[in-house]
Amino acid sequence: MQGGRRDSRYGQLIRRGFTEPAAAEGLLAAPGLAEVRTDTGLLDAFAATADPDLALRGLVRLIEAQQDPQPLVDTLLTSKPLRDRLLGVLGVSEALGDHLAGHPDDWQALVTYEAADLHPGVEEFEAAVGAARGPDELRHRYRRSLLSVAARDVCGTSDLARTAAELADLATATLRAALAIARAEAPQDAAACRLAVIGMGKCGGRELNYVSDVDVIFVAEPVEGTEESPALQAAGRLASRMMRICSDTTAEGTIWPVDANLRPEGRNGPLVRTLYSHLAYLNRWAKTWEFQALLKARPVAGDTALGEAYVEAVAPMVWQAAERENFVPDVQQMRRRVVAAIPAAQVERELKLGPGGLRDVEFAVQLLQLVHGRSDATLRSPTTLAALDALALGGYVGRQDAAALESAYRFLRTMEHRIQLHRMRRTHLMPEAEADQRRLGRSLGYRSEPVTELHRAWRRHAAAVRRLHEKLFYRPLLDAVAQLEIGEARLSPRAARQRLEALGYADPAGALRHLEALASGVSRKAAIQRTLLPVLLGWFADSADPDAGLLGFRKVSDALGNTPWYLRLLRDEGAAAENLARVLSAGRFAPDLLLRAPEAVALLGDEHGLLPRSREALTQEVLAAVGRAADAESAVAAARGVRRRELFRTAAGDLIGAYGTEELPAEEPSQAVDRIGTALTDINSATLAGALRAAVRGQWGDELPTRFAVIGMGRFGGAELGYGSDADVVFVHEARDGVSEEEANKAAFAVATELRRLLQLPTTDPPLVVDADLRPEGKSGPLVRSLDSYATYYRRWSAPWESQALLRAAPVAGDEELGRRFTALIDPLRYPADGLGEESLREIRRLKARMEAERMPRGADSTTHAKMGRGGLADVEWTVQLIQLRHAASVPGLRTTRTRPALAAAREAGLIGEEDARILDEAWLLATRVRNAVMLVRGRAGDTFPSEARELGAVGRYLGYESAGPGPRAAEAGGSGEMLDDYRRVTRRARAVAERLFYEG
User: Fold this and answer.
1) Taking the model in full, what pTM does it have?
2) Which residues contact 616 (CB under 8 A, 6 or more apart)?
3) What pLDDT does residue 355 have?
């Protein structure tokens, strides 16, 4: 019978949510609970808590701490409101249970249920904490007041907004009490100054968390008859003491840290300033984030008149911040810094800073306030939810979007509150233990499967925030131009232009015309565009040139909009739309290629579509296309068409790899440079093979009277081509059996000339300039030589510079066997058995010095010229090539046409130190990437950084300097300046290494 009763009690406890029924039964048998252990109302009250086991343990501790437990027990049995509030707090907060056990009379703070108790404000909280005579009493009174706030929260009497406001009001009252204690401790300091405390952040916005730094700024003025300096010193001592009263940890615990780092100059600036000093700093030095922070400023303690004067003086600056020159790149960089600062292991657990987190909502709302609040005073609330409501009411945000965002924000903030309540610790991370997640889920009302339901709701709301974070900015722009829903509040043309300007568009009127052309109307095409554009516009705005991105998208859409697959590809293939946006807004080179053949956009949706194709596959396709053509001109046009498509494939893959996507991080630069150099070399080799076949077939049919090979030189032979590189070559031939030397020479000259002519025919495709100036005797020598003629020339007349040039020689097209024989012929010259003689060494050194003096363009900055400048490509390559000439005969690894493998081989052979090799490699990679970036951005080759601000910003973004974004003076923004400083630093070090190794080694 006893076992049956025990089973029945076990069942009752388990059904009511206890996870440790045996322990719970033991606790219920404690002497103090004799009267209540069988009370079903009490057991039901436990069942309503987030953690019945935790609530029971807390209640037992509280009863045991009572001198006379009877009043508490009687109240528990007779007062359901007290029972629900007390057990609700004990079931969610172990820290507040500890407080009650240490202060056993404080449970009585939960008994009263008057109107003022239901909705307390600063005045009521001041009455509760203001009478504290010292810091410890203040901490006790603060925690006692916090009990009532938590009770109203967990029992549903207060919603999130009301709870956050109460916490801010309690913080305001506490700051006032702490300042009063500090003034009482130092009456002379108090008499010497006027001190105002300005609430910032969530305290200023009346949306505070349970455990949060309370952000403040201090403003002080001397009282009449006191000098400014001693008055500020006195104010500083009072402010410091007030902060310590709140922040120190004693036997009574702590309240919260007071953080004054939002002040001018942060922690490096003075703690206290006069109003004039604050304004002088803001007018001259303040950054965009500081004005964004001041959006929430309000006086909370100290001299009320001084605090109000401060807020009144800074408000106009806050609402003019969007007109500042670097507003857009500043805002973009602020958001990126937040995301980048999250430890990788915590991203998935972050409620606040992670993707789809609280910061996304707050950041978006504040940005829209700064953009539109300058002309609409209704948007100037410091409270996130109130501001979001005002934005929706004014048509700045869609009503449905605002409602969904508000729901997600309330859920995430409530989660954050419940997590912090448990141990009263400052955290924004989802707990990892299942028991903690179970308590959290139950506190939010999920009872059947609390952990599963909690994660499902969290994922849903986080996804909504991620989705709406983009729509919030861009959907109203589309609604403004599409005008489909009659009667809906919408952005005015002026507000739409303001928003586009704030998002980095230099021509907002033009952008609106593009949006209208793309999204207006009721067609299926326009409907899909209205779905795509909010996200695309966000990606464009994240680039250095949003206008170019949007214009390019309109052109591609005009060209392909009626094809059945184009919009479906962008809508259904997740990566395609983002890839297209990144490519279109990154510069001119790739979009120009795409617009010549828009169907290449299909490559962007193929998982493997942006990977380079092999030289064999490319050559096979080009030769097949040439074989189908009717004549040489159309054959080469087909070959150049393949080249155009493959250039786009390579450039698009490069840009997407350099920028990264929302799913994939940016690619490691050294791998990208090697891959691009190889890909471009293979593309040009296949194109030359096609042009050679077309030139031969046009006059001689299937076989030329002489074997013919094209030898790549320079960066072409080294498989290190950039987008703007010419194809440096030499031509070699060998007469077939029975063909005279004269006939073979004529045929070889004719085919080489025809090959160059065909590749230079004016078309819409990018030109392939074939440069044969590195042949023996340069421009003065014959365009084509036989293999025997090369052998004779090199044996009798070869100069040291030619041996150096031949280090990069490699067959790229034509007769493979002849190419191998040419390579065998030149190996003794470029890898001399005895190394480099003293005379040859002096000649090469003289030649480099003369080249630097003569070939640097007039007026160019030698510190930033990627090819000929200090520590640029020439410095590194000549240094490596000198090592090859001296040691390749004895070090097989040096027998390569590529710079980086040769440098690595020199390091492994001990011919160059580890650090020197690293410095040279870093400089070569950076200079190569700069040249590629300039071509990608400007659409034409260049060896120096662009001077135009947006182009310089785009180069910076390609190189990974993310703050080098759009804006009228992006060149002066942090990213571009940092990029140029880094380039000069890297190349300066490389120059020092190169000079030492080249001239002294």
Assistant:
1) 0.73
2) none
3) 73
